Amino acid sequence: MENNLIPLLPAAEVLLTALTVLVMDLYLREEEKGILAWIGFLGLAIAGGMSLFLWGGREALFGEALRVENFSLFFMLLFLTAAAVTILLSVSYIEEAAIRAGEFYALILFSVFGMILMAAAEDLILFFLGFETMSIAVYILTGMWRERSEASEAAMKYFLVGAFAAGFLLYGIALIYGATGGSTNLGRVAAILSQPKDQWPLLLLAGVFLLFVGLAFKAAAAPFHFWVPDVYEGAPTPVAGFMSVAVKAAAFAAWARIFLHRLSPLQGDWTLPLKVLAILTMTVGNLLAISQSSVKRMLAYSSIAHAGYLLIALVVGGEMGGQALLFYLLSYTAMALGAFGVLGSLKEGAKDNEAYRDLAGLGFKRPFLGAAMALFMLSLAGFPPLGGFTGKFYLFRAAIVAGHLDLAIIGAINSLLSVVFYLKVIVAMYMEQGGAEGKPFSRAPYLYLAVAACLIGTIYLGIFPSAALDLSLKSFASLR
Amino acid sequence: MRDLSLLVFLPTLGALGLLFIPRQQTSALFKAALGASVLTFLEALWILRRFDPAIGGMQFGERAAWIPAYGIDYSVGLDGISLFLVLLTALLSPIAILASWTVRDRIKEYLFFMLVLETGMLGAFVALDLFLFYVFWEVMLVPMYFLIGVWGGERRVYAALKFVLFTMAGSLLMLVAIIYLATRNYQVTQVLTFDLMRISHLHLPHEEQLWLFSAFALSFAIKVPLFPFHTWLPDAHVEAPTAGSVILAGVLLKMGTYGFLRFAIPLFPEAALLAAPVIIALAVIGIIYGALVAMMQDDLKKLVAYSSVSHLGFVMLGLFTFNLLGIEGALYQMLNHGLSTGALFLIVGMIYERRHTRMIADFGGLWKQLPVFSAIFLVVTFSSIGLPGLNGFVGEFLILAGAFHAVPGSAVLAATGVVLGAVYMLWMFRRVVFGPLSRPENQQLQDLSPREVVVIAPIVGLIVFMGIYPQPFLSRMKSSAELVVQRVESQTLAVPVIESEPQREEQAPQGGEQPPEPEEPTPDGK
Fold it and tell me: Which terminus of chain A has fewer CB atoms gathered within 10 Å of its CB, N or C?
């Protein structure tokens, strides 16, 4: 069977752009390096166009190792958009922090390449390759701001934890390989699971469990979450946003493809542990977020809490869960990236201003950034008519329809908890006197553009969610 | 015609318009905001003119698919229950904006939030889709949070957060209940919808109803606020700017009682009947407790805030009598409270602007210095007490008469609340307005400016009008209120049917100095 490589074009384009950026970086003078951002952006846009072109197709490559269907295209577009917005947000940030532009953009592109593989892989080895490509790129991104000791610490921590998670994954894959008699293909695993329950090899279940733990690490689910706040805090703010959105989405994409789709016969067995995990994750995230004094750390814990909400969708499973998951990822991408973007705009030279008091006066001094941040916070807290609310609404609805009323109620109580700390940001921006004098508050136009894009997304998904819901459903359904 | 959509979104249009006016042009900003809210009021009047009192169901209905995949519609309508609440909202909003003339700080944002708030309130009153209602319900919350938090008093941040958390605590559970209800409806009827009218045909088992009712009731009870969920209210009121207090007391609290009448009771009539004794008990406790606590306050705003707890206890009592008298009385009392308490907060605001204190002890003898102010104050005080000839009397009388039919004991206890109400209001009025004008600061005070008179005159006019001629109001409420009564009675299984024919005779437990005038309050001709 000959291989049709066209479905690989978006991934190849991203890789090509990354290499172009790296090579051009060598030849450009220091003051010309601004163009690298645009090359990266353009590459992402072209890859996005290619993904749109492939929409509706259904291709399997390399002997079922990779599948390009609406599901993987949906995530490709999500990663590409998140990366493009991150690049816009980073332009002025990396200038201020004196981070080397060439490596920075190239690494973002490399990580996107890894994510695309993760979302599209039907073979566990390929999946692992994507996972590592993404992870290693993000480890380096975390530590890129070398003047800061926190950055190195964060990168080191992230690397160690990540290596741990990779170990789990690889060990799980090895067990599955043994259990299936020499295959890491998910189709093969699914075939075994389609047999009666008493014929499932124990080894396979052990492998699946380890896989589960490895993904829980990357998705920042409690109790595997402890690295998140330190890593986010140390990382450059746009990178933290990118991690909280794209890396998490990649983990959930893999989770959806492997667990919700291929391993769905096991659904009944993991419902209870996953439920416990979901409750634990959102509660831990929200409770710890309340007491933070740094907005960045708060957002890190909030990102844990949102992973908890997303886990509700995995508990529900099936088409309904998948749809809710994809839709929530969309709205979370818009609001979380926007929030990190505004936070990044507070940067002042070598200093990250990320405590609550640093936001004082932002609301009135920079009305647009302030209003945008306020809306992101309200959306994260789940106020209608914003994307975060509709996302939660469908999650809770999916949970209730599937008979998990308890999850919906606990989710609702968690939303209430989250109101406390999200509103603290608004208090800092609008209700605290002074503090705005003499603060620069970035005026970078690209940053405004990126924040505006996130804002439009957040509001659009809140008021007109129909199209996106439909898209989520179709994307998830294309797995079957 | 898309009357209601125009009504609901006119203020939003105004708010968006404000964004294009430079912030230095404060008077242009004011005029634009005032213009938008006055237009909204005119639209509301235009709707009132064409409202057909004979129809008990929804009028001016509009429906458009919003999120078809989930059966969520943009669906609005108006009936006798929501009609006057919409009018009250549309009236109080321009008044509140006009009363904010002295706000100079960040006026653009202030007006923006006022107008968004108005959209939220109007939307919540006309929404007929549960999802849409929830959206408007929450949309109200955010501007109010900003109004208290940015333009409020000393402890504004605390009060604003408390306000939001209390409200959210109830409403998030209500959200879960809404989704659950729609899901159950789908399971039974195979129709995926959040439409109130269609879901209300669903008949759920007792226990399920009771749980769902509790979730809705908690959310509304916090908003009312029903004792013991009232603790956020004094804080929010004391810290809010004058206009915020006016809207909060005038409209937002009605949202809770309206929610009971529109959603909690018709959706779960059996559960409502079962819960009625508890709610009536809490309402009566609220009436007496609110009055007693109000009596002890040194701060004018706190006093008015606690009087709200007491007055809304009356409304809740009227609603849960489930007879026409009680429900009509409750509806009427909602309007009364909106007007008289709104006016009281305006008055407190006016005196606060002059003296920068709200302590009762700092005043005394104002009548000599501020005759116009004091005269208006007197009328409003009497209205709040329920003096015959003014609006408060009609509402209280109807409620007590209704309660007497349903649970006589509650009427007796509630009547003591009327007496206590007279005590704390008159005592406060005496300390502020009468007595010697001893303090030198008070001797310099200026009487009301023409603008201030314009602000408060419509309310005073309505207070008098509604007191002597309640018929046009009651007749428009009647058909819709009857539907609610029928809805509950059709479900009555264990609880005996209560005779709901109005029998207005001598039992009018009216407190205060004045004996009731029997010919005055004619609860609409049978």
Answer: N
Question: For residues A324 and A302, is the Cβ–Cβ distance under 8 A?
Answer: no
Closest Cα in chain B to A417:
B165
Residue B138 touches partner A, C-beta closer than 8 Å: yes
What are A384-403's pLDDT values in tens digits?
889 999 999 999 999 999 88
What is the identity of the amino acid at B99? A
- The structure's pTM equals 0.90
**Rounded to the nearest 10 degrees, how much is the dihedral formed by the CA atoms of B262, B265, B266, B271?**
160
Interface predicted TM-score (ipTM): 0.90
- Supply B234's token pair: 């004094």
- Residues B438 and B300: their CA atoms lie apart, in Å, by 19
pLDDT, mean of residues A31-43: 87
Give the number of other CB atoms < 10 A from CB of residue B163.
24
Which token pair is B354? 């002059």
Q: Do A401 and B67 touch (CB under 8 A)?
A: no
Q: What pLDDT shows up at residue A441?
A: 62
What are the pLDDT digits (tens) for B387-413? 888 888 888 999 999 998 888 888 889
Q: Using CA atoms, how far apart are residues B341 and B434, in angstroms rounded to an integer?
A: 21
| Dist. CA A470–CA A458, nearest whole Å | 17
At A334-356, the pLDDT tens digits run 999 999 998 888 877 667 778 88
- Give SS3 for B192: coil
Q: Check residue B1 and give its pLDDT.
A: 59
Residues whose CB is less than 8 angstroms from the CB of residue B259 and which lie 6 or more positions away in sequence, other chains included = B216, B219, B220, B223
Give every CB contact of residue A69 below 8 A, 6+ residues apart in sequence: A57, A58, A59, A478, A479
CA gap B291, B397 in Å, rounded: 18
Taking CA atoms, B401 is separated from A25, B398, B479, in Å, by 86, 5, 19
Per-residue pLDDT tens over the stretch B196-225:
888 888 888 888 889 999 999 999 999 988
Residue tagged 């207005």 (tokens):
B504
Nearest CA in chain B to A378: B142
Q: Percentage of chain B surpassing pLDDT 70? A: 93
Handedness of CA A119, A123, A128, A129 (dihedral sign): negative
| Paired tokens of B449 | 């400016």
- Which positions in chain A touch B175 (Cβ < 8 Å)? 393, 396, 412
Q: Looking at CA atoms only, how far is residue A381 from chain B in angstroms?
A: 11
Say which range, A55-69, A458-472, B387-401, B459-473, has the weakest mean pLDDT: A55-69
Q: Which residues of B touch A380 (CB under 8 A)?
A: none
Residues pairing with A60 in the sheet: A67
pLDDT at residue B283 greater than cutoff 80 = yes
Q: Give the integer Cα–Cα distance in Å for B413 and B375.
A: 32
* pLDDT of the residue at A220: 84
Contacts of B114 (CB under 8 A, 6+ apart): B33, B37, B93, B96, B97, B100, B143, B147, B243, B247
* CA–CA dist B265, A276 (Å, integer): 36
B192 part of contact set with chain A, CB < 8 Å? no
Q: Verify whether the Cβ–Cβ distance A466 to B165 is below 8 Å.
A: no
Strand spans (E) along A319-448: none
For residue B86, give the nearest of B140, B133, B47, B30 by alpha carbon.
Answer: B47
Using a 10 angstrom Cβ sphere, with 0-12 exposed, 13-18 middle and 19 or more buried, the burial of residue B468 is middle
Residue with tokens 């929501």: B82
